[in-house]
Specification:
alpha+beta, 7 strands
Length: about 140
Amino acid sequence: MADAPHTIHVDVVSAEESIFSGEARFVALPGEAGELGIFPRHTPLITRVKPGSVRIEKADGSEEFVFVAGGILEVQPNRVIVLSDTAIRGRDLDEEKANEAKAAAEEALKNAKNEIDIAKAQSELAVMAAQIAALRKYRQAK
């Protein structure tokens, strides 16, 4: 259990696995209405998360970065839960693969025949751009 005044328990979970579980001093992530910063004893809330980087300042002062392709955030005074279909540890991000996927999404957008294809390609493009930005943020922090 988290030491209430100083840390908050954080879980970042993808559809496949638990990506991070541990105590943190602070969590920052891209909420639907803008960047969110969460300290221990934060007011409860539930919101959607946009694609981007979750930055976790761990109890020992080190940082962990996780890329999420969107999802749901639940905050309780002593717990933060981020649920995402896709979540990748910062150290596991592959810039070459992300750039290839971004190029494929750009090509799909050019060749889109209807509104559904356009929306799908735009969504994929936004996720890949966010993943590349998260990778750059992770590299700067190292």
